């Protein structure tokens, strides 16, 4: 069972999604036993208890499971993951946790895996239709190779989440192109600045500094982009509201005459 199968019962457009432990495990691609184990270890916050003492989970739980998965991919032990999560400030939203996961993912080199169709569905956390696989291929997340698929592991979860976004395929691809162009331009400028700053240093020091700076630069980029996007959306929505208000005033003025 997937979240998509139960979404009409668990959420509406203006409320947060609520998942049972079975739905959460299926969406995250883990077992129910794993979810309960993480809960007992304090890696997951407790669910909200609803009628009939049924626990309900939300976006923050999904995002935290994705972060734990990324930390495991980095080779961290369970004890190290506990320490890492214990240092995070309380009350982080799903967006905050996704930001942390993106920074953690930036530590690792690009990884491309070869998966069967069944393995692709398991890694995606839900069954994928032929149409959805084709959309992932158009986003360069997966590539068909005979009876298997070459998968960009770093983009798979993002690609699967984009499948549920109510935007046209063309809009998603255009947004991806814009992000790639601007991120590459920013990367070139930052790389030039760093090269100039360390030009006289020993090669070993440069490599150590680069490894230390990489996650910091990525986090800075993600944070500034997130804030800039929020400001742009706020300005757009405020402008839309003013236009509607102005139109209403004009209409009422005409009716008075």
UniProtKB/TrEMBL annotation:
Chain ranges of the HTH merR-type domain: 18-87
InterPro entries (alphabetical): DNA-bd_dom_put_sf, MerR-type_HTH_dom, MerR_fam
Lineage top rank: taxon: Bacteria
Keywords: DNA-binding
SMART domains: HTH_MERR
Protein name: MerR family transcriptional regulator
Organism: Streptomyces viridiviolaceus
């Amino acid at each position: 069972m997937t979240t998509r199968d139960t979404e009409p019962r668990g959420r509406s457009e203006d409320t947060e999604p609520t998942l049972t432990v079975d739905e959460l495990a299926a969406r995250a691609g883990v077992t129910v036993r794993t979810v309960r184990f993480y809960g007992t270890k304090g890696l997951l916050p407790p669910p909200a208890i609803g009628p009939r003492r049924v626990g309900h989970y939300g976006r923050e739980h999904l995002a935290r499971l994705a972060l734990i998965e990324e930390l495991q991919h980095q080779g961290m032990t369970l004890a190290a993951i506990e320490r890492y999560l214990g240092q995070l400030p309380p009350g982080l939203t799903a967006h905050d946790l996704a930001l942390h996961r993106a920074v953690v993912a930036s530590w690792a080199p690009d990884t491309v895996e070869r998966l069967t169709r069944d393995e692709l569905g398991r890694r995606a956390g839900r069954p994928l239709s032929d149409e959805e696989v084709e959309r992932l291929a158009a986003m360069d997340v997966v590539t068909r190779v005979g009876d298997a698929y070459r998968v960009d592991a770093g983009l798979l979860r993002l690609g699967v989440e984009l499948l549920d976004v109510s935007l046209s395929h063309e809009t998603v691809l255009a947004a991806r192109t814009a992000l790639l162009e601007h991120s590459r331009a920013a990367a070139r400028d930052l790389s030039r600045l760093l090269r100039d700053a360390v030009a006289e240093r020993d090669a070993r020091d440069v490599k150590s500094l680069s490894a230390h700076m990489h996650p910091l630069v990525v986090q800075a980029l993600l944070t500034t982009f997130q804030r800039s996007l929020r400001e742009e959306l706020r300005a757009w929505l405020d402008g839309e509201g003013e236009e509607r208000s102005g139109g209403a005033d004009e209409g009422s003025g005409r009716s008075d005459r």
